[in-house]
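Summary for the steering committee. One of the milestones for this cycle was to obtain a three-dimensional model of the protein with pyridoxal-5'-phosphate bound, which we needed before selecting residues for the alanine scan. The sequence and ligand used are listed below.
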Amino acid sequence: MKDLSPRPDLWSLDPDVLHLNHGSYGAVPRRTQELLARLRTETEANPMLWFRSVADRLTTSRLELARFLGTDPAGFALLPNASAGVTAALAAIPIRPGSRIVLTDHIYGAVRYAAERIARARQAEVVVVEIPLEADDDTVVAAISAALDERTAALIVDQISSGTAMVFPIRRLAEACGGIPLIVDGAHAPALLDSPAQDGADFWTGNFHKWPAAPRGTAGLVVAEKWREATLPLIVSWSEYDERLPERFDMQGTYDYATWIAAAESLRVLADLDWPARRPQLTTLVENGAQLLAKAVGTDLPDVAHPAATMRLVEIPFDATRSPDAGEAFKIRVSRELKAEITLTGFDERIFVRLSAHAYNSLRDYELLASRLPTLL
Ligand SMILES: Cc1ncc(COP(=O)(O)O)c(C=O)c1O
């Protein structure tokens, strides 16, 4: 029997705080932090020697990250974040005047802005498909398919949405695209879904600095073979004419490559935590935690057809319209007065706490939040 007890000792998180929002910025285990510190010491001992060693070490780490995703390393490039991944994908696709970029109302705000920027530049249009929170896969596929036509230049969909923590049926959507370029925003997918980049998207991007707990600034872009030549890093540097996609993205000018090199250490931490066995246990934990919180605030849990493995929404009675910064102000009060870190999301005029569970959490965290949060509502 594997020991799957909570392991806050592997992280350096403040024990006086309830850390219930891994989903936003992750949290890096001590072991990876220590490796990163050693790499930085090495850099500062001899920057010239360090930069000479970067290419080989980066290749080793990149191959390990590609293996973790179960993807072809020849189509896998490193980037600082999922925002950069979506932006690079949009830049590779021909988007003609009068064409449409289709996305959904679950899209991450910054990704929508990326689509809007390119649409403005190319005289194209952004079309937003509305998908109910409680939609099943058939409803999702039917609603998105109905918006695809000969004017569609690209479809962007979340694999796991941020605001609604919902898993989208990517394979079915790839089939529905029938040749229309599909960009999958898999920011939350690494470590929450097995082989997340294997569902037939033209472009897939995902963050290692969320659930795999890698240092911040580590993300990947998986590019289908036919798009590899056209896909370029956002920063033009010395690898501009390298025909190999991963190597082209490896070189971003003078940059702190230690982050990418140390990232693979977090994958080893996950392996040592028996992540495949632990993840379903975290699903149960976050579900139980969400039930406790919903009961405490007097709401019903939304019936999301495919919720993310380690995130759950709990609706709270909260009037977000009372001021433009009401949500931010509330999170700051929760942080200061309740010693808890949570995030709020809004969908369809409803406000939710989006709870997370990672290997450092235990049921006690949710019990304490449930006992404290009603005092601020
Ligand atoms: C669905 C989704 N897409 C994109 C992003 C952006 O990620 P990053 O800030 O790493 O670019 C996030 C971040 O939370 C997200 O949840």
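Key point for the committee: The chain has twelve helices and twelve strands.
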